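Below sits the subject:

***
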Amino acid sequence: MTSPPNSDSPNADGQSSAYLAADRDTEFLQREELRGVRVGLELLKAELIQREQGIRSTIVVFGSARLQEPSAARETLRLREAESAKSPTDPRYRQNVAIARRQLDLSKYYDIAREFSTLVSSTCQIEGQCDYVVVTGGGGGIMEAANRGAADVNAKSIGLNITLPYEQHPNPYITPELCFQFRYFAIRKMHFLIRAKALVVFPGGFGTLDELFETLTLAQTGKAQHVVIILVGRAFWERLINWKMLIEEGLIREEELQIFHYAETAPEVWDLIRRYHGAPAP
């Protein structure tokens, strides 16, 4: 005779898991029917911890996890060129070299993100206050740079990691007490914006674009009017997104381009935020 689907063998005390208190039964909490409970817990845990850590406001920094700091990008290019030299007629290696060169050009944004985070963290996290705390997606690349900039001046920063089909490890510069892991993208996105005063977006791929356009939509519809949106690297963004075409096709109004701003340097980014919110000068 087979056992019922949800039955299990007795535990060390001779009791079924049915005897466990519901909040201590981790297997039970993973059931499909408990999704609503898990969503609520995921929202509340990060909220309570940030309150306890005194986090009053944040600046969200997005950008590619694949962008390396300049020294690492130069080494990657050197390796790709060496590979290509061994097989000079192979188009795959030539393509790898071309990509590595473009990645080296983009690596300047690692330094800009790090500098910006140092600037804002040293300016706003003073006398025990936790205002304009940098928050990232917790991974490498631009996210690492932003968390690293805060760590450079012994300031707090937040990492909102997400479980993925492939391994993602939090970068080592996140404040340990503020390093979170989320199961649900929707709850993670809520935490990005709950305390956000600004969204600073560096060059990135699908994930960066997803977060950018969601925030643009919230600002366009009046749901996130308190968030100033800044795109770093105007040439990159105007090459990537044809804003003019959207206007010409009647899909957005020209004045809606005022929802976001461009900046090229860390001081420019902070100056835009400071003027928008009246934040302290460095």
